[in-house]
Amino acid sequence: MGSQDDSAFRLARGGMLVTFSTERPGFAQAARKAWRDGCDGGGLRLGVGGSFSVEALCPYIGGALRLKGILCQTVLPGPFNQLFQICQAPQAAFGGGVDVVGLLFRIEDLFPGDFQAYISGDEEARLRILRGASELAGAVRLLRNSHAGAVIVSVPPCPASPACDLRDLVHSARVARLHRHFVEQWLSELQGIPETFLLDLDSLQRTYGDVRSRDARKWFLYRQPYAEDFLALLGAEIGRLYSALRMPPRKCVVLDCDNTLWGGVVGEDGLGGIQLGNEFPGNVYREFQRKLLDLHAQGVLLALASKNNEKDVWEVFDKHDGMLLRREHVSAWKINWRPKADNLRAIAADLGIGTDSLAFIDDSPFELEEVRLTLPEVACLAVPEEITGLPEILALSQLFDRLAVTEEDRSRGSLQKQAARRTQEAMVVGREEFLKSLQLVVEIFPATEAHVHRVAQLINKTNQFNLSGFRQDQVEVAGRLRSSRHRIYALQAADRFGDYGLVGVACATRNGDALLYDTFLLSCRALGRGIEHAFMAGLRDMARKEAARRMQVVFKLTTQNAATASFLPSCNFRQLDSEWWATDIESVPACPGHIRLVLTRQA
Amino acid sequence: MSEDDLLVLFSEVLGLPTHSLSEASSPENTQKWDSLASMMLVAAIEDKYDVTLSTKDIMVMRSIAVVREVLRRKGVAV
């Protein structure tokens, strides 16, 4: 997730600004490394089928997902050019269950004979190919009906196999015509299939450069048509599509003002001296504001965090002709001389969202670094050195990817302004509804060998919600798993936006009729939603199952876990001594109403 | 560049410790050097040494020793 600000980095090569964030040097290498570094057991399983060989693509998909911070266990290639078989029996085709199925194809691979015939003048062949589009769509429908997870299918590129090169003047028009008809048919058939997402391989290839996307060596050697860098890009785009399906876009962009919304410093240059308008560089800032307004129309909130005098900033908003943003577009603002991190926290609180829903844009490396260190969950974007790259950092960041814009999204900006209630009750009501809408599911189960690595990782790096801070290494964890006196419970959570993965650990020892927990922790990404209370309730149920009557937990207060001081009392634990807190089982509160608790014997 | 550089590359791509590799390592005697690994090796080598391998080169690169020789012929100091 450290790559988030990097993804907005733009290169200018010989006057042409590159269009993909993956074109910064080293991306392909970083993706391959992220793939090789592996995943600790849990996470997404993808299956990819192609009309060409997709083996070499899989590491790029997996690597791209991991670089985005999505837990990806594996990406499995399906059998070569057997899309129909994959649709009929995906589990057999991939050698196991998968969560997401991706299907990539090219017209010339699926219908080689008819394609050749068509190029040579056979019109019937074109009709057969179009019927083939229907049949493939039928197979996708079949897959959709039998497969529970997401289905991603591609829009095929214009054929350009060695058999028919688009640089060949004689045949290119015929091929282009076939392609247009095919895509039209394909899209109309797919429209009727729900929860099926399109990867526009056609547009991707065209935008990247049809000719440079391909590598003849790889086609003839491996039946894999693409150049390495295009493979990396394709992997990244599939990762991006999946990410947009599963992870919500950032809810709010917090903007600096000077040298971000306009050129110059209003406190020094005055209203007339800042650069904002139709001439360079003012036109760049104006275009950036236009892009911000686009985001706003899609439901992203805009906020300001600026070190300025309030009146100077509002004067620009109210009086400067070059401004596209107006006060009514801004949902929250902190214009003062306090540290930006404090202001970001306050803005998040005002808007009733988490700091992990914020994106922050500033031109000052100092401010960005301060926020990165203090609030790592905030996505920081730098105003680029080459200022003409500014308007596009929002799209390039991929932070606001959204597959569909709802009516609710469109009106969010104004709803938020109307509903700027600051009373505690209003916030609580809003919060409860919000929590319910998450559809949280928490699963608690005894950890097994497969979880040892992740459990040990959590034990050693969780500091905030860690009641005891007791560290164990992998060997010790594995040892406890084998001991009948010890218990290690793992917690996995998911909400409607996606899977959190394994985020909670509790370790206990049985002693008489009590269970003594020397470890109770939760990853910070799972905080603030009541999951910790669900965890305690789940542990109580597990304890009850083995006829324990009391629960004891170690609590050692540190500077990092200070916020958890009220947790055990809220679960009706009483302090026994300097380390231990205790309760009887029946006093532990029930699981919070907005969370569905699932207790299983095994993962 | 030290001789170990190429071994380190193979080690990273194959996921094997350098001490388990030698000039004689090949797809025949190294289980992890499968077809996918071969493709990733080509990508890693072209990336790291900034060379373009012809299909002739790729076809003969069936051991670390041969890879080293192919690269040396291209002027890479390995």
Record the SSE blueprint.
The complex is a heterodimer of chains A (603) and B (78).
Chain A: H1 3-6, E1 12-13, E2 16-17, H2 27-36, E3 44-50, H3 58-67, E4 72-77, H4 83-88, H5 90-94, E5 100-104, H6 107-110, H7 112-119, H8 123-146, E6 151-154, H9 169-191, E7 196-199, H10 201-208, H11 210-213, H12 216-222, H13 228-246, E8 252-255, H14 266-273, H15 282-297, E9 301-306, H16 310-319, E10 330-335, H17 340-351, E11 358-362, H18 365-374, E12 379-382, H19 393-397, H20 407-418, H21 424-437, E13 440-446, H22 452-461, E14 465-466, H23 474-482, E15 486-495, E16 498-511, E17 514-522, H24 531-545, E18 550-554, H25 567-570, E19 574-575, E20 580-584, E21 595-599
Parallel strand pairs in A: 3-4, 3-5, 5-6, 6-7, 8-9, 8-11, 9-10, 11-12, 13-21, 17-18
Antiparallel strand pairs in A: 1-2, 13-15, 14-17, 15-16, 16-17, 18-20, 19-20
Helix pairs in contact in A: 2-3, 3-13, 7-8, 8-9, 14-16
Chain B: H1 4-14, H2 35-49, H3 55-60, H4 64-73
Helix pairs in contact in B: 1-2
Explain what you see.
By secondary structure, chain A is α/β, with parallel strands linked by helices. In chain A, the strands form 4 sheets. In chain A, strands 13, 14, 15, 16, 17, 18, 19, 20 and 21 form a 9-stranded mixed β-sheet that branches. Chain A has a 5-stranded parallel β-sheet with strand order 4-3-5-6-7, sandwiched between helices. Chain A has a 5-stranded parallel β-sheet with strand order 10-9-8-11-12. With 78 residues, chain B is mainly alpha-helical. Chain B is 54% helix and 0% strand. Chain B is built from 4 helices and no strands. In chain B, α1 (4-14) packs across α2. Chain B is globular and about 25 Å long. Chain B starts with a helix and ends in a 5-residue tail after the last helix. The relative contact order of chain B is 0.19.
